Amino acid sequence: MSLKISLVLCTVGRKKEVERFIKSLLVQTYKNYELIIIDQNRNGLIDSIVDFYKRYINIIHVKVDFKGLSKARNKGMDYVKGDIVAFPDDDCEYPFRILERVNEFFVKHSDVGVLSGMAIDKTTGKVSAGKAILKAQYMSAFKLAG
């Protein structure tokens, strides 16, 4: 079973990082995804990158005249067509096969509504931010982790 994955990437002020993220998508083995870029730049900063990579992957490029991550993510939800929604940061890169693994997880665990991962520093291989949850667990509004 193949679930469509919608990736909502909100960005402002980053060019090379956005391109690195898109390049990390090009090498994914799982291809049933769309990339929705909510572009908060007012100067066309990433236009040429988006135009180039639209030849290779499904990119929906939405320019907005406001700034704010939550507002931009909400705007991105207006364009989602997938069964699974992810919100990658504009300075991250996805590891090889991650989309395939996410699809496999949700196919196997159809009762699960949220999957969270951790940020790993590419150079050191260590958790780079926040508290990492190292084992699967159920979360609620009252118990978010560990």
Compile the SSE list and pairings:
Elements: E1 5-11, H1 16-26, E2 33-39, H2 47-53, E3 59-63, H3 69-77, E4 84-86, H4 98-108
Number of strands: 4
Averaging pLDDT over every residue, what do you get?
90
Shape: globular
The count of helical stretches stands at 4
Low-pLDDT parts are none
Cross-sheet strand order for the largest sheet: 3-2-1-4
Largest sheet descriptor: 4 strands, parallel
Name the structural class.
Answer: alpha/beta
Q: Could you state the order of secondary-structure elements as H and E?
A: EHEHEHEH
**Which range best describes the helical content: under 10%, 10-25%, 25-40%, 40-55%, 55-70% or over 70%?**
25-40%
What's the gyration radius in Å? 16 Å
As a percent range, the share of strand residues is: 15-25%
Q: How far is the first residue's CA from the last residue's CA?
A: 32 Å
Describe this structure in words.
Helix content is about 25%, strand content about 15%. With about 150 residues, it is α/β, with parallel strands linked by helices. It has a four-stranded parallel β-sheet with strand order 3-2-1-4, with helices on one face. The longest helix is centred in the N-terminal third of the chain and has 11 residues. The model has no long low-confidence stretch (mean pLDDT about 90).
Structure, briefly:
The protein is of the alpha/beta class.
